[in-house]
Amino acid sequence: PWLFDAAKSEDWARRSCAIGALAGIGALSEPQKLASPEQRLQIEEVLINAAQSDIDLKVRHRAVKALGQIRSKRAAGLLLGVLEAPYPLLREEAINSILQIKPPAKVTVPRLIPLLKSSREFKLAAEALGSYEEEAKEAVPHRMELLRTDNTAWRWEASSALGRIGDETALDLLVMEAVRINHYFNNHSSLRAVCEMAIRSEKALDALKEFTTHELERLSMHATKSLPEVQKKRKEWLEKRELAKPAIDFGKVEVLPFTS
Fold first, then answer.
1. pLDDT < 70 regions, the chain
2. What is the number of alpha carbons within 13 Å of residue 202 lying toward its C-beta?
3. How far is 28 from 70, CA to CA, in rounded Å?
4. Residue 1: which residues within 8 A CB-CB, separation 6 or more?
5. Rg of the chain, C-alpha, whole Å
6. What is the pLDDT of residue 244?
7. Exposed e or buried b per residue across 120-131, where buried means at least 16 C-beta atoms within 10 angstroms of its C-beta
8. Is the separation of the CB atoms in 258 and 84 below 8 Å?
9. What is the pLDDT of the chain when averaged over all its residues?
10. DSSP track, the chain
11. pTM for this one?
């Protein structure tokens, strides 16, 4: 109860500390030891209200992070709305929380794609899109575009995400980047992406096997070293796919517009 009162304090630092403590309780594996079911619902409500309407940006930032810590599915629409906030730090924290909660791809992927063109959030956005794997195929053309830029960091993140998404339409471009002469970062990042894709794609696995005999010595060496591990992970993935649990039902997610 003291923390709930502190979350309403006129002092922003006091509110922020209270939100952090409440998030810590809500994120426990057995929160019932410190809070009743009613109090746990109240914790979530306090965090959602703070993230949505606190007058201090620092408190909002802390609340957005807290919602990810407690994996609040009720906050999915709010966090997706925060992606359009005019504050980079707030957008970055919203992406981090989205990574924790994983709202449905159909509402999340279209709102992450524009952030691929941001100089600040592109790395986190790429990671978040990659976590949706094949559900993020809509992002593939945008990733392929980034792979053709002169920005090494952008190419690295784009290739990584393309590998995780696993859409074979990007495979030819990744193979071309992997064999480019005198482009170590291109070679390495694209090979890594092909390895990631090969876990779920037979065609990518064949490309990786061809790399093991490529004339580019560095490429063939890394491919040969990577192949056994990739084959092991592919076997594990195939086994897990057979035993996959049904997806969590979020219901209808309504995106809430960000308000300053």
1. 29, 31-33, 181-186, 244-249
2. 1
3. 8
4. none
5. 21
6. 58
7. ebbbbbbbbbbb
8. yes
9. 86
10. -HHHHHTT-S-HHHHHHHHHHHHHHHTSSSGGGTS-HHHHHHHHHHHHHHHHH-S-HHHHHHHHHHHHHTT-GGGHHHHHHHTT-S-HHHHHHHHHHHHHH---HHHHHHHHGGGGG-TTTHHHHHHHHHHTGGGGGGGHHHHHHHHTSS-HHHHHHHHHHHHHH--GGGHHHHHHHHT-TT-HHHHHHHHHHHHHHHTT-HHHHHHHHHHTT-SSHHHHHHHHHHHHHHHHHHHHHHHHHHTPPPPP-----PPPPP--
11. 0.73
Spell out the residues 6+ positions from residue 187 whose beta carbon is closer than 8 angstroms to its own: 177, 178, 179, 180, 216, 218, 219
Unique residue bearing structure tokens 């990574």? 99
**If we measure between CA atoms, which residue out of 71, 51, 72 comes closest to residue 62?**
51
